[in-house]
Amino acid sequence: MGSTTEVLSPQTELLQICRQVIEGQLAPDVAYNIIRTLMKTIDNIPSLLVDVLAIVDLELSTEKKNEECRKYFLEFISHLTDRVVADDVLKCELDVLGANEQTTRSRVVKTKTRLFFKQVKFNLLREESEGYAKLITELLDNPSLTVSKALTRLYHLIGQFNLDPNRVIDIILECFESTLQRRKFFIDLLTEFKASGDDICNILGFKFTFYQVLFLFFIFLSNVFVFIRVFFYLAKSE
């Protein structure tokens, strides 16, 4: 019978390489060259390597390996840093590089929160003109649109274009203002949209403040105009 050669998975092969390094059986620079060779045929080596290094790092801390093993491991990591795996990634994953420190843990939590839980919302019309343009078109160009269908399309647009819900309420109010004959539709839409009363009051308050400033500006212009007329009248009479 012919001999069979066991084919190792990339993770197992990387784990063997790392363990040989910390046990002094394989020089760190030689191990680095082997990994560089593996990267030519396997695409996700950096990702797999981070997992393997985390396992070896855990073994070093739990099994109380001697200082020589730690030295080999750090030397091996120095070859990998920013060549195979980014330095920031290693510092966040490996205790031997300070990942267990409070500041590092806090930074990791903030980074993951920003990446996975923070929703990007476009508040200004110029930031997502297509989404808001479609929203206005849906609300104004289809008088026969029912509230339920409008609400469904509203949610689709918010999700597709990451529209800010408060800005959406603002646009609904603007469309309401321009088509008062459809007041029942817009009142029902705002009710079904579950727009907060506080949010609507804040938006309306901002609008009234803007109109008040605009009104005062027009008063100022009218006074300037009167002053100019009086000035020219007096100049002409002299």
UniProtKB/TrEMBL annotation:
<dbReference type="GO" id="GO:0000445">
    <property type="term" value="C:THO complex part of transcription export complex"/>
</dbReference>
<keyword id="KW-1133">Transmembrane helix</keyword>
<dbReference type="InterPro" id="IPR032302">
    <property type="entry name" value="THOC2_N"/>
</dbReference>
<keyword id="KW-0472">Membrane</keyword>
<dbReference type="GO" id="GO:0006397">
    <property type="term" value="P:mRNA processing"/>
</dbReference>
<dbReference type="GO" id="GO:0003729">
    <property type="term" value="F:mRNA binding"/>
</dbReference>
<keyword id="KW-0812">Transmembrane</keyword>
<feature type="transmembrane region" description="Helical">
    <location>
        <begin position="210"/>
        <end position="235"/>
    </location>
</feature>
<dbReference type="GO" id="GO:0006406">
    <property type="term" value="P:mRNA export from nucleus"/>
</dbReference>
<dbReference type="Pfam" id="PF16134">
    <property type="entry name" value="THOC2_N"/>
</dbReference>
<dbReference type="InterPro" id="IPR040007">
    <property type="entry name" value="Tho2"/>
</dbReference>
<protein>
    <submittedName>
        <fullName>THOC2_N domain-containing protein</fullName>
    </submittedName>
</protein>
<feature type="domain" description="THO complex subunit 2 N-terminal">
    <location>
        <begin position="17"/>
        <end position="192"/>
    </location>
</feature>
